[in-house]
Specification:
The chain is α+β, with helices and mostly antiparallel strands and about 1100 residues long. It is built from 24 helices and 42 strands. The strands form six sheets. Strands 31, 33, 35, 36, 37, 38, 40, 41 and 42 form a nine-stranded mixed sheet that branches. The longest helix has 19 residues.
Length: about 1100
Amino acid sequence: MSSGRYKCAIFIPIFWLFLVFNTKSLADGITYDFSGGLSDSSLASSIASYSAMAMGSDKFNDSYANYPLTSPQFVSQEGVDFITLAWDSYLRLPSFVEQELKSSNTFQIDIRFRFNEDNPHKYLDPNNPDIWRNILGTNEGARNALGFNIFVEKVDGDSSLALMVGEGSGREGYLSWIASDISENHWHELSLIFKLQVAKPRIDIIFNGAPSSLYLTESDRVDNSLLSAFFSGGSYASTYSAGLSDSPAGLFIGGFPYGDPINQGMSLSIDKIGIQIIKGGQDSYRLNQILDSITADVENNVSVSTSLVQEFLQTFSDDWDPIEINAKNFLIQYFKKKGAIFVTEEQLKVQDFFPSKKLAYYLQQWVFDNLFTEVNLSKTTDLPLFPDAAIYPGPVSEIAPRITKEILINGNYQTDPGYMLNGQETVLRPTGLYVPPGEIVTISSPANQPLTNWKARIGISFIDLESTWTVYNRFPRIGNSFSFQGQEIQIANPFGGGLYIEIPDGSSLGEVSFVVTGAVEMPTYAMNEHAGLNHSVTDFLNAVNNAYVPYFELIGKKFNFTHPNRFGLLYSEPQALLEKMDSFFDAISIMTGRPTIGIRAEWLAGDRMIPVAGTAMAASYPIHGDIDSGDPSLMESVDEKYWSPLQYIKNDYYSAEVTKTRVAQRKDAFTLWHEWGHLHNLPTLGCQETESNVHLLYVILANKVLGVDIDTALRYSGFQDYDRNDAALDTMFSPNWQIDNRLCLDSWDNEVRYQTRSWARLVEIASLYGWDAVGTIHKEFYLRGLANGKAVNYGLSDDDFIKTASEALNINLVPVFEFWGVPASVSVASELSNLPAAYAFKERLANYRNLIPTNQDEYTAVINKLKSTTGSEGRWNYFLANYDLAILQTMRAKIDRIQMSIADVDTDNDGIPNNDDPDNDNDGVLDENDAFPLNSLETADSDNDGLGDNEDTDDDNDGVPDIPELAGAATLTGVSTSAQFFGGARAYDDVFGTSDSPPSFKYADPVDLIAEIKVESSHVNTTGNLYVVAKYYDQFYQLVENQGFQIWDGALGTLKPAVNGKTFSTINRINIFKDVALGPAGMQLSSMLYFYFAYDSLVNPEELYYSSTPVFFDLIPDN
């Protein structure tokens, strides 16, 4: 499942209309079955259809309604009448207003389709080789765009179907994978049932008879009021092009005329499309008939009808009471005859289930979602026990005492604005208790205690698997919660689970007492700080031996652990383990520069499925390792999962004399810390270094706590088994490094993501100056976040990090960063040259120089060693085939140059050391009169804000930022000019980026782009035009007055003004855009954006004055 799905199209649509026959009235629902040609159509509604045309045509700026008409392809084959849409064709249905759709009603969309990969591909983006097709939706295919989109994507031969839902406000939106490994050239049936008006808004999905649901309950992903308004006669935003601006919302089949209309290499066939509004209640009489029939078939071992199950799934509208008796009877009979759904750890496709199994699966998940709630819990008292509960999470012994116990909960929880942890909105407090499957437990809370937004949670696993998984070995949702409303609440869960109290950020109630009745003691060992929990190792091990429940827990100061009971006896030294893990997190706090008293304990728990597909371990709270609970009474002899904390209290952890499984465990142990690194959200540079600095956690714990040398720690911290020498060679072999460019992308791969050389730079600093130094650097960003009330984490510029790090340590770290592939800009390097030199690094540089091969044999040996553990071999194969001594000499020359830069400080290079020089920057202003004695570019600070007037973006501190000057004003004829150009981009009203330190913006950031043109003095009060040209993903655009950006072919004759007929002032400002989120505006491709500015004057109409330096910035994904 690839994220390469979101690309920008290079085609636009041509419009035509056709009529389709056999269509019901819109009031009763609408059905298109495509059972005829154009000549015999006689319908009440029409569908609009499009085919693609290359950009740059004379139709590009037209509304799609003005494009030439064409004709669809109707097909009749094997008794099926359908329409085929080529890779460049798609349809538009009548608007939601015409269909009388309203989100206050449930509405259903049905489509029967098939797809197949065109051969040969008629269109394929070479930068994104994955194949996809938009199937159905209201937008171009972005998770944060308006409405929804269904698409199929083919990656490495596997086709998957997914649903995206968003509302266009900049929130993240949802991406939910429906099915994987689906067949080409095969008819598929999909129903989407929108229930936006219910208490827990959701979209029910039925794909080839397999039910699933996408719950729309996360407010940071979707504002449901905006989504509901869109489906109730809403319109597209004014930013939409191709004539869609402010037009009524509607459905598109196979594509979309904005943003991403062209599908890569797939044709799409549609047999039928249906839309119906469900205004009345469900047909309970028919549902009971279906249940009676299916129950009888199960009882008699007769095959259940697929069509009956499909009819039930499409008819049932959450009204349980009228079908309760028959639904229970069906479940009882199914459990008796068939048993559990997920018997083994094998991951299953729901669409492959037999019909009766699909219904049993659906009803159990529905009962969990809708009856085991605060409102409906009373309806669960006589439900049959779910057989799956005994398999996962696991059984609770019938003889286990159901107890009444007082529990004490720490009611204080406050996040820190200086940093952000994943899942920090609430925190879990352990109770040491387990809720048996299906049994009601009562919790009494103190009278007059305000427990606003507090919850009782059952189950340590509460992430919805249906968001990312399409195969399962347990039910997708097994954890639920209950709000504290009143002094006493009742809770239950059909699967059972540990009992936790969930506390929201900002709580400050101190110690809170609860009385729990009906729960079972869970084997628990807690450090003494946790009042009310067990502190006896003997009692803990006895409880494990009793095997009453499937899990045990260890509770420390900074680490909590939930693990299958069958491993419990191996954890006979819980105090030592918890102390070791706490010391790990203490070390991590030092490295991250954050307070050692954290906001919470991190939590590791076992689960039969990792909550997020495509990850080894998701960076969640709690974080989950892949393991089955198993029989709690069958004790294991070893625990050698790579994420097991037990390994760290073994004295021979790094010994070569251990078993192969222990070696493998140690080799992969970093994976857990990698994910915990994501959870910590460290200050991070660009070029996808989000997958780099996360490895620092393992390096420091291995070095500082486990006691291995820093190079051994580095070797085990990632995939490549590289120490600093290996990482240095890897760096020097980068083609970008050899030409003094930043390591980012080469011809073969990303150069930093997952690669040891990218986090080796901070490991180098730790080896030179200690881990406290790395913490001091990170602390500066923590303090910045604390001051701004917003954590500093992603999208930092290289210059910002280098400057902050150097000033924090009072050492010029430019040479360190340059060697490790992150060169500073000229201006920052000059500014930092006044700091004490990084003398300690010179010895390391000499070492790295000595590693460079001197002949082809050494060259081949080095490359073969580095190649043996790297993820991408393309670069190494190239160098093996292209031995060149000049490359090796380039390496030596660059190291020599870096070494030469580490010297005694003589800022102005006049031969007089700074301590003896009265004018250290040689700017003609004595140091005693110079506000910036070490900066020849600055002498004054007019507003006393610590920034020199030349650097200061607001010299007079009036709140109006100055705009950076764009160097290199030029003219078309080559004549010199006194005109000056200024421009900058920023977000959140921050300072403007510069050409030396261009900013990075996420898709949802509110970006300002402002330019100012200071015309030649002779042009003041004359009339002329202002021009803006942009470059985005190898395409030029021009800003046209009152029309927005349009494609520009680069010819001066077609250049149109952004401001036409302006009488020039000395300074002329253009606000290109203000607070614009570029992702929702249609820019869904990560790329650099460049903006150039120009003007002409009637004084000299044949001349054009322009900026040769652009404003540019990097557009990056929100995640």
